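Q: My collaborator sent me two sequences in one message, no labels, and asked for predicted structures for both. Can we handle them in order? The first one she listed is below.
A: Yes, handling them in the order given. First sequence, followed by its structure tokens:
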Amino acid sequence: MSNDQLPQRRTLLVGLAAVSFLSLAGCMTKPVRPVNADGTYCHRIGKSYHPTLTCTPDAIPTAAVEAEAKLFEGMAGALTVFVLRRSWGDASVVVPVTVDGAGGAATIPESLVRMRLAPGKHSLSAKWDGLSADIAIDGQAGEVRVVELEGSGGARGNTFSWKDVRLEDVKERALATKLVADVRSAL
């Protein structure tokens, strides 16, 4: 092989490697699990022979409601708040989120909750293992807000904290989650 052919061969090998890597990149995304027969949804972690399942206690919204919610549009007369739970080290526990100390929804890892609330000030609270974390939300009618419930599990137990985020910064991650609740408070 001549010295003139070596750069061409290297370029060909690098190109083939890049194409192979890009085709495998799609395989790295975890597929969304199907909804259970009873309408609940489970997030799965672990090997197929010994998985850990974290399931919603109630049936989740239909696929049509999920598709509409993932347009991330506001509603006239309501403040729309999305609760995103999708952090890489999230603890595998169900964490209920309440609004103003009343009803709300249960979150699981890699989940999304849409809440339609009356315009104004609200307090969201996450409760787990006898602990809680709160965040204050204030918004106008038609406005869309996103808050992230970041969790981590470790030897010292589970921890959760809130972060107010911009939709543009988390939209891709939010689209990769499952809508597990669609809450409408008295408007």
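Q: And the one she listed second?
A: Here it is, processed independently of the first:
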Amino acid sequence: MKIYRALGVGWAALCIFASLLLIEPILFLTTFGFSSQLCLAVGLFLFLVAGAIASARLYRGGDWPRILVCLIAILSGVVSSLNAVSDWRSDLQRFGCAVIAIYSVISVVIFFIPKRYVA
């Protein structure tokens, strides 16, 4: 369960950081009224907040935190991989996206292992 605790702390930090980055676009989109971009941004914000809560409860048991954080890890891995291979990113941004993509893949592999086999 120490592995789940370490992964939970990492994903909680990533979810909180990403949700803080989404606050400014949400405030910008509210000035234009109700739109589909606003709904998408608010939905993603709520998904990340739920991921931060699930990350905090990851090591206490239950399947819903593991499934939710695994979904966030899969989505984060796909987005980070696409950002890492894009042409208009700097080398430092590519490195950061590659690190997040690798962390996501490792997390997904560990989450797919049954709980009884994880130390």
